[in-house]
Design brief:
Helices cover 33% and strands 17% of the residues. It is α/β, with parallel strands linked by helices. It has one domain: Carbonic anhydrase (Beta-carbonic Anhydrase, Chain A, 3-Layer(aba) Sandwich). Bound molecules: zinc ion.
């Protein structure tokens, strides 16, 4: 199996023109030009990039209220720590909310197979870790633990949740003992 293979067989039509047309209408009635750069809720959310999760809708957030950091899995990587460190020290956020979810793409891949496929196809393995997991609750706990252990982020106000993609509910994850 090639790493880049997908199940989609129809012809691919890029969306950028459609997005730009939407933006013409959006900017015509734009009202957020006075928002401050620092998030008003002093909150940073770290979430998976999953396309079914509208973070603003799920949490009832408005534009300007929080930093939203997203990547595959909502993993606490060095780059997420970089962003949180800046968010806290330069832009005044204090609270961190982690948002993982059920049925994540990272539950369906194997780190070793993924990297072996890449190496077979490209002749090189990435340095980064894919960080797949079996249990989203355990993975959320692992992410909380990373934030507690890094010196660069203040985790005094830290909570972690798993979003259930089948019913829209959040379930809180307790920190590691
Ligand atoms: Zn995911």
């Amino acid at each position: 199996m090639s790493v880049t293979s997908t199940d989609v067989t129809e012809e691919f039509i890029p969306s950028a023109d459609h997005l730009v047309a939407h933006n013409e209408r959006f900017s015509g009635s734009f009202q957020d030009g006075e928002l401050a750069v620092a998030p008003t809720m002093r909150l940073a959310v770290v979430a998976c990039m999953d396309s079914r999760m509208d973070i603003f809708k799920i949490l009832g957030l408005e534009n300007g209220e929080a930093h939203i950091l997203r990547n595959a899995g909502g993993v606490i990587t060095d780059d997420v720590i970089r962003s949180l460190c800046l968010s806290q020290r330069f832009l005044g956020t204090q609270e961190i909310v982690l948002l993982h979810h059920t049925d994540c793409g990272l539950q369906m891949v194997s780190e070793d197979e993924f990297k072996a496929d890449l190496e077979a196809e490209l002749g090189i393995k990435p340095r980064w870790s894919l960080e797949p997991f079996a249990d989203p609750y355990g993975d959320t706990r692992q992410s909380m633990q990373r934030l507690i252990l890094t010196p660069f982020v203040d985790a005094s106000y830290l909570r972690g949740f798993v979003y259930d993609v089948t019913d829209g509910r959040l379930r809180e994850v307790s920190q590691a003992e």
